[in-house]
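User: My instructor asked us to take a sequence, write out its structure as tokens, and then describe one feature of it. I'm not sure where to start. Here is the sequence I was given:
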Amino acid sequence: MTLATIFCLRNLRKTMCYQGFKNKLCLRSDIFLPSEICDKLVNTYMELVHTDSNFEPEESFFQLFSDPCSTRLTRVQLREDFVRDRDLEAIQKQDLIELHLTYCNSLSSRSLKSLISFRETLVSLCLFGCNHIFYRKGGAPLACNEDTEDEEEESPASRQALETDFSFQGFNRLRLLNLGGLPDEVDAETLLKPLKSLTSLDLSNVQLLGTAFLTQWKDRLASLVLYNVDLSEELVSTIVEMVHLRHLDISRESRRTSKFKMSRKILTAIVQRLVNLVSLDVSGHIMLDNCTVPHIEEAMGRPSIEPCKSSIYPFQELKRPLQFLGLYDTTLCNVTHIPAYKVTGSKNEEQVLNAIEAYTEFRPELAHRAINQLFDIARIQHCSQLLRALQLVIAALKCHKYDKSIQVTGSAALFYLTNTEYRSDQSVRLRREVIQVVLNGMEQYQEVTVQRNCCLTLCNFSIPEELEFQYSRVNQLLLKILEPARQDESIQRIAVHLCNALVCQVDNHHKEAVGKMGFVKTMLNLIQKKLQDRTCDQVMEFSWSALWNITDETPDNCQMFLNCRGMSLFLECLQEFPDKQELHRNMLGLLGNVAEVKALRPQLLTPQFITVFSNLLDSKADGIEVSYNACGVLSHIMFDGPDVWSMEDPRRDSVMDKMMDAIQSWDVSSRRNINYRSFEPILRLLPQSIAPVSQHWATWALYNLVSVYPSKYCPLLIKEGGISLLEKVLELESSHLETKDMASKVMEACETFKEDPMETNNGQEVNFGQRG
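Assistant: Let's start with the prediction itself. The structure tokens for your sequence are:
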């Protein structure tokens, strides 16, 4: 059902909708959907809007559910500023049973009128964090809002124009109500008075002028949440009268803001009077020392949840262990025996994970602190509940995409939770979820810490394989990071490394797509900045390496390199950094790719470039790699024949002689810092007589590779038809004797491999960076 729902939402016009007047989305007349499907559509739509950057929201989506004859909604959960007054107005004919609005700050008192339309059916209502819903826009009273212009949608509700006409009168079926964050100007007592049948009430962060009014529900209320509500003797006296309470939350954000001290007497009264209690949260309170059993008197043995052994005196009065006990940011979480199945605190991993789970949705300020503690556990100790920890952090990052503190701590925790130590315990689906939330964070925040954490986390994945399902998106985000002229050095280094890894070992259509995003220009800009700073660091080397990779068998990207002053930067780098071997290797590898494109070779055929390539034949940088790549560039140029060689100096013959001398100086058993995916560019140089030296270079390349790495390159050569081309080399009179001798040895090596396909050399196979 989930898969079908997501498919329909991504393809509304192809499934259940059509384009109506003024491009308005309309439901097809033959579509009738029950509440099970409609609820799923709306709730999944909200999730996609907040967690999938590729998902395009529909302006008139909620209008699809305006007619109860064709669509039925019963349980709807909407969150964040994305939700508008007109969205609730669109569905006001529906018989909603449950409506949860969380952090919907764009809603004004216009939405209170929509709420009134649900009064006869609504059982559960949440208005948590909807700070403006009790205020009018533009000062218009509630009764006149019906024809409000859409332009007014965009203006925030005025905090001065308090709505005074709304009442819960007539909400007779309402049982569960969450008014967390109700503005101080709204009198909770007056607002709640008409609701006679509440069984669950959440007044988190609400300023209560008096508390006696709570007793009107003392015979019904099963759940009462008073998070961050100032406790007093009067309020405690009221609470203990509510004998039917099963869940009580009187916690605070922090002990620092608490004036009230939790004593043994108060906790004992709560336990003795509220005999039905199964869940209690007293987090963030200052606990007086008389609450706990002295360590020397504690019950012996392993930690126990039996009330009689409790290290907290008042809880010895419990008839049975609590299902949940919130002790986060209190001294009580550190004791040995706690009579509860699930405890929040900071003593150990279990308590920290419980805290993240309990507080993520409505208390990001606590979840943030708990995730920070999980980060320390994963970094310094060992996370024993990896799967649960990852799922909780992912849920927090999804739920609070716009909360910077959650994004910072969550992305840092993900880095440690996805590293090699924990990798074997993670499924493909879970690792993909991690990648999605990491990319969400990168998209939402340009802040240095979030960007660095996210980039580092991506480094824990196999690239490009594990990122291929988000290939275009991740490349766009990385290129965006690298755009600013002066980026944080560490982020720049990681981002360039990731870019390089992403274009290594991928299909050409991926490389072409990334090239069109501006990849080549971005890398050359980085190189230009490093040249200006006269710095050759990892960013410089990675940038050239990335260009080497992205131009491999991709003529369009090679053309872009030339168009963006690539050759000028090549010459400048050679001149500025004459001793940087790795840099030279990467640059020559890239130019080898350019030289493979026949249409671009004329741009390399200038006295200046030919002289540079010719001089590099003598280079001993990085073993034979620079000399080998320079010879490769010249081999492709020579393959075009003497007719295109229009310059007098250097002469073609003298360059060819120098190439032959260089090839003969190389050790054929050299181990290579290179990785060929295809021999096609080499093989095209074999059956020809126009440039025997090019043929000689190509044959030497094959001989070296099949000798040193037979198990890798013999099958590739056989598969690509290299044997028949080598036979032609033997037949050609123009082929040098040394070339023919090497060709024969290559054919023998492949024949031997076919008979005994085991690695014959002593060296281990090494998989270096891609050839290009």
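For the description part of your assignment, you could build on this observation: The CA atoms of residues 169 and 194 lie 5 Å apart. Try explaining in your own words what that tells you about the chain.
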